[in-house]
Write a structure and sequence with these properties.
By secondary structure, this protein is α/β, with parallel strands linked by helices. The protein has a single domain, classed as TIM Barrel (Alpha-Beta Barrel), CATH 3.20.20. The chain is built from eleven helices and ten strands.
Length: 271
């Protein structure tokens, strides 16, 4: 059973909160459909609104946030910190403005300011730094290794993110980046009961077993994102499903309002 709030993840002498406040609504990621425009107006362009959501999430027990090197997101976090919030950061490295619908991975590699991201985000209390999915899903292992090495040089634990839990996991198993067991320790993947924004038509028990088998071979700490299926699934059902996944070590949850924070994290507290 995945006990979310009752205990932190103990990793190399550091206590890491298992629940992470996601940043997708704050950055108005394109996959929210019609809500993307609303998030752009209400959140991306309004750091004060985002800081209030961060503060409310903190009141509800959340002690970690997914940061990226984006001006208004960092401004919002600093406002929240000035108001008493103390959160560890799960920092995304190399995040670009790529279109989730029509991604251009080579362009992402050229546009990613990953060196600047590492330098700027190192100012926070980082539990880890994760390489963005648009860089990981190129499967350019030399390029990915270069970024992971740079993160590791800071002494901060490193990891990777993918948009394709099945394809990327299959690629990883035979990749050179698993040969060095110390290269990275965390792996963030999209998982939800509906299989939404996963690279499969559904996520029934056979697919769950298949994914678990691959993750066992990869042998990293697994962070789940998109557990709410981008808002399609109600939190209680989504988190009850999460609680059945014995490969889940952490979860990242995006929130778009103070009310959502209260509703969502109150449910997590009760599971």
């Amino acid at each position: 059973m995945f006990i979310i709030f009752n205990e932190d993840l103990e990793f190399k002498g550091k206590s890491i909160p298992r629940v992470v406040l996601g940043n997708a609504p704050f950055l108005a990621d394109a996959y929210f459909g019609h809500r993307t425009r609303l998030y752009n107006l209400d959140l991306l362009r309004n750091p004060n609104n985002v800081s209030k959501i961060i503060e409310k999430s903190y009141e509800c027990g959340v002690r970690s946030i997914n940061l990226a090197n984006k001006e208004n997101l960092l401004k919002a976090f600093k406002i929240a910190c000035d108001n008493g919030v103390e959160m560890q950061s799960v920092s995304t490295i190399g995040k670009t403005e790529m279109d989730y619908v029509f991604p251009n991975y080579e362009q992402a590699k050229m546009e990613a300011t990953w060196k600047e991201d590492i330098e700027n985000l190192a100012q926070f209390d980082n539990s880890m730094m994760l390489v963005d999915e648009f860089l990981i899903d190129t499967y350019d292992w030399d390029f990915i290794t270069e970024i992971l090495d740079a993160i590791n040089d800071t002494g901060i634990p490193s990891g990777i993110i993918t948009s394709f839990p099945f394809k990327t996991s299959e690629e990883l198993i035979d990749s050179p980046i698993l040969e060095d067991k110390s290269l990275f320790d965390f792996y963030m993947i999209p998982v939800n009961k509906l299989g939404y924004m996963m690279d499969i038509p559904d996520f029934r028990s056979d697919k769950q077993d298949e994914l678990k088998g691959m993750l066992d071979k990869i042998d990293k700490n697994i962070i789940i994102n998109k557990i709410l299926a981008v808002g399609i699934q109600r939190p209680e059902e989504a988190f009850n499903f999460l609680n059945t996944l014995d490969f889940a070590d952490m979860v990242s949850v995006g929130i778009a309002s103070e009310r959502e924070a209260e509703e969502t994290f109150d449910i997590l507290n009760k599971i």
